[in-house]
Amino acid sequence: MRWLAVPAILILILTAVTGCGRNPLFFRMGAGYYPINYIGSQWEYSIDGGGTLIVSVIDQTEKGERACYRILSGADYTYWIANDGYLEFYEDHRVMFNGYEVPLYQAWVTWLDWPLTTGYSRTDSASTFAVNQGVTISHDWKRTSIVFGIETSPDGKWEQCYHLRQNETTINWIRAAGFEPETTIVQRDIWLAPDVGLVARVTADSSLTLVEYQQGN
Amino acid sequence: MKWVMILACSAAAVCSAIDIDFAAETGLLYPSGQWGKSLNTGVDAGLFASWIVNPSFKAGLGFSLSVFGSSDQGAASLTFLKPQLKAGYYLRPWGKVFNPGVVCAFGLSRSSLSNSGGTDPATWDPFWKIGLRWNFSLGGGFRGEVGGDYSSIMAKTENGDVFTLRFGISREVEL
Question: What CATH number should be reported for the domain whose range is A27-211?
């Protein structure tokens, strides 16, 4: 049995040597990086420059003929579907025209696929139009999400966060005399922490930082 | 590739003028725990060379490669590469139809996750496994084996536990 000792010792040495290559992969895979599937969960964010934003999971409801979670974010409702494999968001794009709110694009779109990885990338887009009061309004939308890496959150409180950058471009064009295409470009840097969700979000005009999180049931 | 050379040298040293059992194994892997929530059933294949110490006991070296895919037909894949030491004890080595046994192994696992063009840093962690076997003769000097393993990759913070349904074929060779 002496010969067994040699490879056994070698493997132990290798374990020690490769110890620097260890990381909590299974922990990240098992964690919920956007845990919206607990009714009553609440996230309290501080807004850079003053104020707070409360986000809470209100209930389960139906939207677009699918069961989903309804989330109150400030004064607005958003709708999400959480699965083990992916997270979907109900895109509800509207534009104001002549005093009327014109719906342009409503659909469930995958927000992220699980599990996230460094370098993960997904792009979603839509091109559509609506006719309102005899005028055609075209709508082009594109969102790209890229994971930059595994980081600690900007405030240093949350580890093993995925740093995600989203670039979202929207072009609305009222096809009538006097109107030009209206382009909106938004870039968001988002940090998602394991079993907490969004802990920081930075855009050109605002920054959110998680102050308190309470998980619901 | 340092570990490949070390294992090859160890195997060569062990294989001088002794009875060796060469085995090929395959299996279906079922993740146990939250880490596998977005993965489908995995598949596994391995090659092993074991010294037949006596008819009941054999011990040796080998490696296995396992792959998991997304549960939702997505693009994710998780792979394990496991160089390992393995030992098995069989109760009825003369049994043509029924030769039950137990096996255990330990080694290292390189776990690598990729999804949608991205790859997380691979992690090297120690792992162990234990399993039950039903060994039987296939004729022509070959033996078959079915059984189940429970294995655990001892990663940081959380382990990666897996249950495996195992199928194998082996042949004894005198060197």
Answer: 2.40.360
Please write the tens of the pLDDT for every residue from A74-90. Answer: 999 999 999 888 999 99
Search chain B and give the residue with CA nearest A20: B124
Structure tokens at A41: 């969960």
Give domain limits for chain A.
27-211
In this complex, which of A3, A22, A85 lies closest to B38 when CB atoms are compared? A85
In this predicted structure, the answer to whether residue B118 has a pLDDT above a threshold of 60 is yes
Q: State the pLDDT confidence band at A20, using cuts at 50, 70 and 90.
A: low
**B2-174 CATH, one of 2.40.160.20, 3.40.50.300, 3.40.50.720, 3.30.70.980:** 2.40.160.20
Q: How far is B72 from chain A (nearest CA, A)?
A: 6
B108 in contact with A, Cβ within 8 Å: yes
ipTM of the complex: 0.86
B10 phi, psi to nearest 5 deg: -65, -45
Q: How many CB atoms lie within 10 A of CB A107?
A: 14
